[in-house]
Write a structure and sequence with these properties.
Blueprint: H1 9-24, H2 28-41, E1 51-56, H3 58-64, H4 71-83, E2 88-91, H5 104-116, E3 120-127, E4 140-145, E5 157-159, H6 163-168, E6 171-174, E7 184-185, E8 187-189, E9 191-194, E10 202-205, H7 207-215, E11 220-225, E12 232-235, E13 238-241, E14 246-248, E15 257-260, H8 261-267, E16 277-282, E17 290-293, E18 298-300, H9 301-314, E19 319-320, H10 324-345, H11 350-372, E20 376-377, H12 381-413, H13 419-427, H14 430-433, E21 437-448, H15 451-457, H16 460-480, E22 484-489, E23 492-497, H17 506-523, H18 525-530, E24 538-553, E25 558-563, H19 565-580, E26 584-586, H20 588-593, E27 599-605, E28 612-617
Helix pairs in contact: 1-10, 1-12, 4-5, 7-9, 10-11, 10-12, 11-12, 12-13, 16-17
Length: about 625
């Protein structure tokens, strides 16, 4: 529980900062790009079989002449579309001025007659600083609930078709739209409010809404504004959720069916348009206007109108999930807490901690995609970004903590533990590993024979040099087998295995170390004598047993040491080496634990040990 002391303050601060930012700033642009990714990776499917686009394209301009055409000619095209059986014809074109051609008045009159005979919808637009619209809405509005005041009145006027055309058309719809700050067209307003100075409040439908109304032969529209998340617009038999007052476009990869205006003018009515809502638009280089969509494609405005109509007919919408902001906040807060707990409880299992953090970071997009498949939107970008920030800060905290632990262990134990043991301690719970506990260990004591006599016959500097040579050999061979040096006892070294970390075969490791030290000291005596130093003879004793191992001492001095019968045994066995003429002796427990057979040397009585003790030695 030690590391649950919230020992990752950077991660805690990161979570707090992420939560505060989530509460204070919605990062709308980031949210929208996250919603775009849903449509990019899993595009929606909206049937487009009830709409079509009649395009005044390059072929049409080549056949009929440059744009703008005489309005009588446009009227002929509208009547041909109507004769093809179109349910409604929306002209995605503006006619704010009379026809400027030589026979303009007659041309406008012919166009107006064509509009009168067809289910036509003309386009208009609104602006804050424009003069009042000199036309009356074709669609009547009925409001339920909050009423007409729910819509923005920021438009003082606009641009509408000239009066003869506006009066002749079956509908008037607003084509104005707004791209988001990044230039992408993601949604279109469905109801617009206009109120000039001293003028009454009037409402206008979006172009797509008006085409759908005319196609269904409806006289009016109904708007429910309850303020409880069920606001909707009713267009005949279609119920369209209003959400924030806009229809979020489903950016389908497919495009509506296209028919060239040149083909209709040359060949007459085309049955493929029968029963469809048709958008008439210019689609030629330099004359058309394209919009960047959610999936990053450029599409003609007529395509967006057609898609909007298709969504309303099919009843397929993308709506922000009720309580989405609260859910996003909860995902961030709960996911961050889970990451912090994983960092605290799984600090010694970094792979599992990292997997937990990755799972939490991946949870918001997984839930977001699941909601998206049901037409609901919940932002995944902000929770995932915040959780990544928390995980990154926590990982940095763990790294710093591990580095501090490694440096502490290296400083404290580098002289007594092998580098491998120090590394393994740094990767585990060092505090638990170094706590005092009873555990089986194998203890080895190696000693220089006749060192007291040697100190009396050799100068101190040479004696110390020879001693240091022996200690260097003992350290190297013990560390080579990942042993732990307990302490130096003058000319003796006490070491043990299987602590502070477990070591399978620790009896074999201790025996190998004892034999290696004895053999190496004998082998390197020649180099000592060439330097004018005394030759050395060493003996070693090894025994296995359960001892108390861990940090022991006072507040002023603590040593990692072992106490127990095995430690006492090797001290007594080492004294028997000279009497028995064996360089290495092992106690009975070590002989039983060793994987290789040891030869029995003798049965002896050891001071402080009850009863006779069998003594063993490695095979010659």
């Amino acid at each position: 529980m030690g590391s649950v002391r919230l020992s990752h303050p950077v991660a805690v601060a990161a979570l707090a900062l992420a939560v505060v930012l989530a509460a204070m700033a919605p990062f709308g642009a980031l949210r929208e790009r996250g919603f775009d990714l849903y449509q990019t990776l899993l595009p929606g499917d909206v049937p487009l079989d009830r709409v079509a686009i009649v395009a005044i394209d390059e072929a049409s301009l080549a056949a009929e002449g440059r744009w703008p055409w005489p309005r009588a000619r446009i009227g002929m095209l509208v009547e041909t579309i109507a004769e093809s059986g179109a349910a409604a014809i929306g002209l995605d074109l503006l006619f704010p001025e009379p026809d400027a051609s030589a026979d303009g008045a007659a041309s406008d009159a012919a166009f107006a007659q064509a509009l009168t005979r067809t289910p036509s919808v003309l386009a208009m637009t609104l602006a804050a600083d424009a003069p009042p619209v000199r036309a009356e809405p074709k669609a009547g509005f009925s409001f339920i609930g909050a009423g007409a005041d729910a819509f923005d009145r920021g438009y003082g006027g606009g641009v509408a078709p000239i009066a003869p055309l506006a009066d002749a058309a079956s509908g008037l719809g607003v084509i104005r739209s707004f791209a988001d700050a990044d230039g992408r067209m993601r949604a279109i307003p469905l109801v617009w409010a206009e109120q000039g100075p001293g003028a009454p409040l009037r409402h206008w439908p979006a172009f797509s809404v008006e085409m759908l109304r005319v196609a269904q032969g409806e006289a009016g529209l109904a708007v429910r504004m309850g303020g409880a998340g069920d606001d909707a617009l009713r267009v005949g038999g279609a119920i369209v959720p209003l959400g924030d007052g806009r229809l979020r476009l489903i950016d389908v990869p497919a495009s509506p069916m296209r028919v060239s205006a040149a083909d209709l003018l040359a060949n007459g009515a085309d049955a493929v348009l029968d029963g469809r809502i048709v958008v008439l638009a210019v689609d030629a280089a330099g004359l058309d206007r394209y919009h960047l969509t959610a999936r990053g494609e450029l599409r003609l405005g007529a395509d967006l109108h057609a898609i909007a109509v298709s969504q309303m007919l099919a009843g397929r919408f993308l709506l922000e999930m009720p309580g989405a902001r609260l859910a996003e906040f909860a995902l961030l807060a709960i996911g961050g807490l889970v990451i912090l707990l994983a960092l605290a409880f799984l600090a010694r299992r970094p792979a599992l901690a990292a997997s937990t953090a990755l799972a939490m970071i991946a949870l918001p997009p997984a839930l977001g995609f699941a909601a998206y498949t049901n037409g609901l939107l919940i932002d995944w970008t902000q929770p995932s970004a915040g959780l990544f920030f928390v995980a990154l800060a926590g990982g940095y905290g763990l790294y710093r903590q591990a580095e501090r632990r490694r440096r502490t262990l290296q400083t404290q134990f580098a002289q007594f533990l092998s580098p491998e043991i120090v590394r393994r301690l740094a990767e585990t719970d060092a505090r638990a590993a170094l706590a005092v506990e009873d555990r089986p260990i194998t203890v080895m004591m190696v000693d220089i024979r006749g060192f007291t006599a040697l100190t009396g016959s050799w100068p101190a500097d040479k004696t110390v040099a020879a001693l240091n040579h022996f200690l260097a050999i003992a350290n190297a061979e013990i560390f080579a087998r990942n042993g732990t040096i307990d302490k130096y006892l003058g000319d003796a070294v006490l070491a043990f295995w299987n602590a502070p970390v477990e070591q399978p075969g620790h009896a074999d490791l201790a025996l190998e170390a004892a034999q290696a030290i004895v053999a190496r000291v004998e082998r390197e005596n020649a180099s000592l004598t060439t330097k004018g130093l005394p030759a050395l003879s060493v003996v070693a004793a090894v025994e296995t047993g359960t001892c108390s191992v861990g940090n022991m001492g006072t507040a002023d001095r603590v040593d990692f040491t072992a106490i127990g019968p095995a430690v006492n045994m090797v001290s007594r066995l080492e004294q028997q080496c000279k009497q028995l003429g064996e360089p290495v002796l092992a106690g009975p427990a070590c002989a039983a634990a060793a994987s290789g057979a040891l030869r029995r040397v003798a049965t002896v009585n050891l001071r402080g040990i009850d009863g006779p003790t069998e003594v063993f030695a490695p095979q010659q």
